[in-house]
Amino acid sequence: MAEIDKLIVKFLNKEANLSELEKLEELLKNDQGIHVFNSFVKTQYLSTLSMTEFDIKKAKESIKARLKKGERIKRINHYKRMAVAASVMLVLGMTFYLLYNNNPANGTKVKQQPHLIVTGTDKAILTLENGDEVALEKGKKFQSGKVSSNGEELVYVDKEQSDVAVKEQMYNYLTIPRGGQFFVKLSDGTEVWLNSETKLKYPVAFSEDYTRRVELIYGEAYFKVSPSTEHKGAAFHVITKSQEIDVLGTEFNIRAYNNDQIMATTLVEGKIKIKKGEVSETLAPNQQAIINHEGDEIDIQEIDVSQEISWINGLFTFNEKPLEEIMTVLARWYDTEVVFENAKQKKFVFTGILERTEAVEDILKFIEATSEGQITFEISDKTIIIK
Question: What kind of architecture, by CATH, is found in domain 314-386?
Fold first, then answer.
């Protein structure tokens, strides 16, 4: 077993001493260390769920006792910092909660109304060049000319495989409704993952006489761009309402929803140049560009990209996010409305990793359980009410 494996096992078993915690914290500063850590936590989470009995009261008392001891306070702080860095903070708390929730003696304040608010799924509306609209969804196949869909993804024929030269740039639109997501492979091989409430405009086929250009009209998309070296040096441009991105073969995420005050572009691999008005900046991997729609400044930040792109891996990742922001994300995925009865509740901060495949009731129960009585959820028809 590698050194980091041993340290992680001790950490999860609460057996690591201060020196070992400091060493583990150093190892978690690189992506490989974080990947190993996340794998261990997921394994422990699943194995813990398989237990039939768990004394949640005793577990909570044990945690409180440790927090009261002098040296342990410092140790817990190390645990907290490392958990945040690895994007797994409160995973053990979620395990405790799920086990606790399976106990019939313990109730919940969230009223379950299945079939009203459903989990998001693969679905989209494809608008063809002639204006016709096609509903794409699981179990429904579609084929027309150079494009086909199996109901979960949309694939365009590579222009090199087509026997018809591109004489005129024709465009399609792919619209993802609230409660949906979809994947599209463009004719140049570029892959795009589209999140809920998103709309993308792109050519049916890219012509050598045109710059490879697509437009993210609104929403969130993750791009894995086909390198320019495979297209006679042709660059790839992504246009949004507030910026233009010049790409030379890379992977990045853009979050540009209509109702958001800011737009965030996160670079995972490669290199991109962002232009806003007369201002331009070049991003390196693990950097995020923040743009306020009302100004021309581009703010560059170093971030943990795994948190920003966790949605394409089927996860919600919230790291000290206010409840107002969290509920906006959940509302898009579950296609529901949200009402805060008290404006102060919008500022409640939550950290945790949650599966996008979970029912909204379970997501809300977990947030409620970790709030220690500060937050109460109620579901009425398709509206979530926060009290």
Answer: 3-Layer(bab) Sandwich (3.55)
